[in-house]
Amino acid sequence: xxxxxxxxxxxxxxxxxxxxxxxxxxxxxxxxxxxxxxxxxxxxxxxxxxxxxxxxxxxxxxxxxxxxxxxxxxxxxxxxxxxxxxxxxxxxxxxxxxxxxxxxxxxxxxxxxxxxxxxxxxxxxxxxxxxxxxxxxxxxxxxxxxxxxxxxxxxxxxxxxxxxxxxxxxxxxxxxxxxxxxxxxxxxxxxxxxxxxxxxxxxxxxxxxxxxxxxxxxxxxxxxxxxxxxxxxxxxxxxxxxxxxxxxxxxxxx
Amino acid sequence: xxxxxxxxxxxxxxxxxxxxxxxxxxxxxxxxxxxxxxxxxxxxxxxxxxxxxxxxxxxxxxxxxxxxxxxxxxxxxxxxxxxxxxxxxxxxxxxxxxxxxxxxxxxxxxxxxxxxxxxxxxxxxxxxxxxxxxxxxxxxxxxxxxxxxxxxxxxxxxxxxxxxxxxxxxxxxxxxxxxxxxxxxxxxxxxxxxxxxxxxxxxxxxxxxxxxxxxxxxxxxxxxxxxxxxxxxx
Lengths: 254, 234
Hints:
By secondary structure, chain A is α/β, with parallel strands linked by helices. Helices cover 37% and strands 25% of the residues of chain A. Chain A has a six-stranded mixed beta sheet with strand order 6-7-8-3-9-10, with helices on both faces. In chain A, strands 2-1-4-5 form a four-stranded antiparallel beta sheet, with helices on one face. The relative contact order of chain A is 0.18. Helix content of chain B is 77%, strand content 2%. Chain B has helices at residues 2-36, 39-70, 74-107, 118-139, 148-172, 177-209; strands at residues 212-213, 230-231. In chain B, strands 1-2 form a two-stranded antiparallel ribbon. Chain B is elongated. The two termini of chain B are 33 Å apart. Chain A binds chain B through residues 209-210, 213, 232, 234-235, 237-240, 245-246, 249-252, and chain B through 1-2, 5-6, 71-78, 210, 234.
């Protein structure tokens, strides 16, 4: 029963950047169709952890990983696993919106095209569906061939989400997706996260505690590379078990 | 910014304590005034009503401001939630004091049916509960709540014994009916104040531990109620 319900599981995950021990024995089970928020002070390993989930740390020299990250029960760091395949299933959205300097349409169609999709009708459908899922369709449907760089920051970020949705991932990783957006664009992304969890699993790194409390079902608090507390968001923010968590979320830290 | 928030929260807590002292004073003094038929003291209690309402409004405004500006979490949030509840209970307690003082004003010209013993005794217990709640709000020593349920039971029993006593006087002499009804009302007010003190203890416990507990002696199985009953455990 429990095996079906867990989409990502880390087992004694350790990570070093050269001599810097950045993640220490992280054990975590994440459930599908839930939003999990990672919180913690800067440098605590949140982004490092989220990058482990789609092997984005592979490209960093001096980075060494021990332990396991299981995706549907399979270790994604196993010898036969293709990192590109993993990243198809586990998409990512970054802190700053980074659209390609192409048209809105091409931004979304890029992923499916790379995968060999050339049928114009099917591509049109994918573009429309992805933009609708990212709550951007209504705003851009009449100017799909305009440059994506002409969109506002909030729209660009939703475009990036749409782009990650186009290849139909199962999990979406978001590394501070709202930190460069204004409150209204932030609210839109938050509404979107709420919608997305019907079909996807979302893992979000955020520095905004209220945002974590608003959008997530589960919250993990990290400090100095360790997982200090992981539990239901309601419990973490109303009655944290660990003193360190309490100190961090009430701002009595350091 | 965070330090500022905690300073401001501390200030608001102090004001809650001040408001608590005032409302306890109003209740205590109203009973003293009743016992001694002291209409001057009763008047003082009545005039304090405005001050009490000001405390209520002022603290409420400040807590709303804190919520809006800082979006508190965990214990800070529980403290603010507790404060908002406490001021309501404290305002009610103070107003019961005012109601008792009004009764005192009306009846102070004539002597009591007999020397008042049970009512002041009841008041002492209730005031000790309010006092302990306020002290715990400040120093977070929860052991003071261990015997709250016993005190609450005593207060309830006193109320019924006052009622029965008054009933017998009224049957003996219909002329004291008016007066005895007042005593019954006062006993009823005091009992309500005891209930409010228990609710305060519940909220303060929640503030300190995050556990929701119930102090309730109305149930037959009363005795075990505090010290263990947790509600809303998920």
